[in-house]
UniProtKB/TrEMBL annotation:
InterPro entries, A to Z: Arrestin-like_C (IPR014752), Arrestin_C-like (IPR011022), Arrestin_domain-protein (IPR050357), Ig_E-set (IPR014756)
One Gene Ontology term from the biological process aspect of the record: protein transport
A Gene Ontology cellular-component term: endosome
Transmembrane segments: none
Top-level lineage group: Eukaryota
Name the UniProt record assigns to this protein: Arrestin domain-containing protein 5-like
Domain Arrestin C-terminal-like intervals: 1-128
Organism taxonomic ancestry: Eukaryota, Metazoa, Chordata, Craniata, Vertebrata
Gene, per the UniProt record: LOC102738019
Amino acid sequence: MEKNTFTPGERVIFTTEIHNQTSKCIKTVTFALYIHVQYEGFTPSAERRSRVDSSELLRQEANTQITPFNTTKIVSTLNLPQVLSVSSGMRDGEIMSTHYELVSTVHLPWSLTSVKAKVPIIITSAPVDPDSCPRLEGAASPKSQECQN
């Protein structure tokens, strides 16, 4: 990937290079975007507890014919949903944190195993375009707090 920070609705373009060092043909490669949400809380007896919930947001499958002892590049695009939680780390007092992961999986048809590559990505809020902010006549600074960021 050229970058790892995206906004909701943006396209994620990435290249996967697969070196097939086996004597068999690889036929399927899967790409998926996962969201991992960690919740923190306390039991009635004041014991700290956390729970991680993961789900698949997007999935794409490439049917390939990667021949034995060959290298193949696959260029893929995932269109992010328009509404996504912003990536965040767990801070004091926060009860929830969110992070995203792009996972490429190479299925080995002659085996029960697969090879996975995981890349973290960051989702930020949409950047504010300073040209779209209304200005007060004769004022040098933006009118709203949102436009100052």
